[in-house]
Design goal:
The chain is mostly beta strands. The chain contains five helices and 19 strands. Helix content is about 10%, strand content about 35%. About 20% of the residues have low confidence.
Length: about 400
Amino acid sequence: MQKSSLALGLNGRKLTDKDIFSKSDPYVVISRRRRVEDGGWTPIRISETIKDNLNPRWSEFLIDETELPGAYEDLKFEVFDAGWKKDTSIGVGHFSICKLEHANKTGTPLPIYTRGRKNRILQSLPGPNISLLLMETPKTDKRLKCGGEIVVRSFRMDVGGSDNGSGSACPSQDVSGGGFTHPGGHHGTPNVHSPQTVCPPQTTFPPPTDADSHWIEEHGDLCNLPDLVLDIIAEYLEPKDILQLLDSCPCFEDFRRFLPKYQEINGEDFRKEQHPNQRDGDGDCDGINPEKYFDGPEMNQGAKSIKLNFRWKDQGWGHRKGQVWIQLIRNEEVLADSRKQFHELAPHEYREREVVIKEHPVVDLLKRGDKLRFMLSVGGGGGHYLTVKNFKVVVELKKY
């Protein structure tokens, strides 16, 4: 029995001419994303070069199933103009196996893009209440410039060794071209610039507003936008919005690479004096008088470590009592406290203080929705001060 494989035939159409005195000499590279942190791409097939032709017909590719991603994961298709000294990119597109199959069945061309002049390209994207899905349109961005189209002239999925071409790469779904089904139940006209890839049936979205529904009916849902457009959108999204997208549909799985690895939190400089009526023993049993310095923002991911850097000193004489530490807060309750394990008193003269917290409940228990509370104690007994400057926290985040 033969292994399952995909026979894929591609044409280029209306490619941008990169040559001055003749036409481009195009070839296409098909790549798959690497399963490592860098999120790069590994070429799996490279076509022959077609000389002096803006509408090339490349030989059919035969790709083994072990080289293919999942049905909803993208392959990268980049068309180059072969040059004497270096090759020039004509355009790039990211298409899933399902998109390729649908493009072949319906004859839908797949656009490839390069980046051009600054423009308000994203202003044409969904309207008023896409707070779940989109950011505010940036005033300027790099404009997507079409480099031509890729036509899928043949798509034959040999499933389980049969070479009759009857196998499908995608789960059963409506890809008839007569409309797409939105997970919320809305139907619309297919987007001619993007083949229809719908989310799996079990995926649910919050009900769209009337404005969202109108945009969806006219343009299609976000899963059907060109992948390069989605990448530009993701660059401007807040982490919490990216996480909402990841939770909403597998077609946004690639957005994980836009999540930050670190989060910075900064505190304001302060010089705080002990309250005149405050004495040792007014606070807890250790004789400190804890108070809140400030609350950090709500966290979107768990943490691997927390590093604090700041410059501090006390009143410059007498007993040293000033302290700074962290609490982990969940639902306004203290879940963990770092003071006893990372205890140090403020010096009489300015010094730099660095604390790295690992393998401690403040770090290990932190999860999405929690916040870090930064605490201080000036100390009791009369005449005490605590001064803190350049307070900076760097949270190393876990993968989501």
